[in-house]
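DATA SHEET
Item: assembly model
Revision: 1
Owner: S.N.
Input lines:
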Amino acid sequence: MGRTSDAREKIVDAARALIELRGYTALGVAEICKAAGVPKGSFYYFFESKEALALAVIDEHWAGQQRAWKEALSGGSEPLTRLRRLFEVTQAAQRAGQRTCGTVSGCLFGNLTLEMSNHTEAVRVRLQEIFEAQVELVDAVIAEARARGDVAVADTREAARSVVAQLEGQVLFAKLYNDPRRLDALWANCLALLGARTPDEVPAGL
Amino acid sequence: MGRTSDAREKIVDAARALIELRGYTALGVAEICKAAGVPKGSFYYFFESKEALALAVIDEHWAGQQRAWKEALSGGSEPLTRLRRLFEVTQAAQRAGQRTCGTVSGCLFGNLTLEMSNHTEAVRVRLQEIFEAQVELVDAVIAEARARGDVAVADTREAARSVVAQLEGQVLFAKLYNDPRRLDALWANCLALLGARTPDEVPAGL
């Protein structure tokens, strides 16, 4: 039993690394099993299909990212300080990915949105749920900041969507240019999007 | 000769439609030729490889989009009015795509960035050039707006990058939710990012 659950984990880990490097479509089950070091028969013991594996990879990646986001966005500091931490965590993750894989891997969810959302409804729905959850986490912090008069937005949910969209757009460029410094602009952009009233308020491009 | 150049065009058109619908990796040369209604032998007469075809699709798509962007961003109106037109043109294109394909196809360049940029250096470089050209077109309008005192950014190039990143991020969500209305927020976001000083200045979420 210990060995079997280990094999599932190995398959998911190998698949995630391969998807980050090369995308989902190009992957074959045999290749995933080889990278995972498990016999091909194991695959269909754990997963009904390659799509089921994709969903498992998405869920596991989100479990880790959700922990990191909640940790960054919680705690005793001021709301905008916590929001800033989210961007720092994102940039650190992209830097770490670049060190490990040699290339900025971008956002797994963004990548799969563009690669898979037109093919499989199950993946599309899951990715929608994850982005909604991200928006909700950011929304809560923006609402706190608004209550303190730190930001000037009417609809905090809509503002959170814009912040997450900005994050996705800049991460896409970080991937294209293989340069995590592309994410340097995120914080100033976020403050501008939120009409922030903080001492370090700066519009985009400063 | 007339027939031959017609076949090349048919291949590029069919490939573009298939890439928008299903991505690049999943495509086979035989399928592209079938959709284009040309014999498979024609393919290698025109294209050295599938990658060469991808570059041709990218170039042709950019030729059309560049015309549309230049048209939107030029003319006698005020710079911010022209910039707004760019977002309207983008939204109209996504709506049209949704009517034709049944699903919002997103940005071909963003899609290929996430799907291909880690695989082929030629495609990565071409996509970088295209995004630079987009940023340059937007930069010119922002610089005009700044000269009039309409926006408050220090570095117009950096600001243009943020605007294009915002566009990419929101288009990604429009694709994920198959809903071009996701792009409604773009104009307010853009004004906020630029620290715009226009009568219709609104921060994100208004």
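QC remark: Chain A touches chain B through 54 residues (CB under 8 Å).
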